[in-house]
Amino acid sequence: MRYFSTSLLLAACGLFLFNAQESRAQSATVLDGIYNTQQATRGKRAYARYCEECHLSDLEGGALEPPLVSVLFLDAWREDYLWSLYDFIATRMPKSDDYRPGSLKPQEYLDILTYILQRNDFPAGRDALSEDALHQVLLVSHDGPMPLPPNATVRAVGCLQPDGGGYRLEQAASPSRVRTSDETDEVELGRSATQELGDVTLALNNLDVLTTSKPLADLTGRKVQAKGVLNSLGEPNARLFVLSLEDLGSCNP
Ligand code: HEC
Fold first, then answer.
1. Whose CA is nearest to atom 24 of ligand 1?
2. pLDDT digits (tens, 9 = 90+) for 226-235
3. Which of 146, 196, 223, 232 could connect to 248 by a Cys-Cys bridge, CB 3.0–4.6 Å?
4. What is the CB < 6 Å shell around ligand 1?
5. How sure is the predictor about 18, in pLDDT bands with cuts at 50, 70 and 90?
6. Burial per residue of 26-45, b for 16 or more beta-carbon CB atoms within 10 angstroms, e otherwise
7. 99 CA closest ligand 1 atom index
8. Distance of CA 149 to the CA centre of its chain
């Protein structure tokens, strides 16, 4: 759902909820045994029925279908909550003539997701993965959390400040990975509004041509959510190609 200014109230209601989620958010990664083998076995059966014809039994994919194993696959989805991968699968897959996207039960999608994790050598644990946990479990590489890959799409929260002829984001929190960069919604804005500032500085590109909901002059000095493509995280050259920019309120409340 797109964001409209009338949704501000909803965003405020979401704050409490997301505060609670955020505080637990760092606690789990896919290295922690966040599904169990029974679930992955169920997932294997569902995968064989709904996914295998395209992504194949070794999950390596084909000419048109991307692999669901390997570094390539993990690079596309790591440093993000499992929710993103789940949401992609549950809304866009399978895409065959026999089965429409989104036509499986949520539990089946969840089971298939755990099978994919198992085939990527992430360990099983005691408890099954629940839909609620998807927002709290980070997908990381086998070596644990790592810097984002180049050209990752991210959301950054910080203070908008003039920088020569352009702008930069100061006191920003570490950017987090997102799937869409040119739009937002009230849930995401609620999450950004409660996000604590940090010490990252990001140069901002593309603001001269971007259409923002408020004039840039009115946003200067404000806490903003900037989404876009990260060119590099290596200080001092960190640079964000901005595709959406939203006001979050005062920077020093
Ligand atoms: C008829 C062929 C077909 C079927 C069946 C199918 N897929 Fe796909 N899948 C694709 C194609 C083609 C893509 C390429 C990108 C796109 O269309 O979004 C894709 C992309 C994906 C991706 C994104 C991978 C990446 O890193 O970009 C995932 C994950 C995925 N499929 C999972 C599944 C799962 C799970 C199932 C079974 C529920 C499934 N697919 C069934 C054809 C298929």
1. 66
2. 999 998 655 5
3. 223
4. 50-51, 53-55, 64-66, 68, 73, 76, 88-89, 92-96, 112
5. very low
6. eebbbbeebbbeebbebbbe
7. 5
8. 13
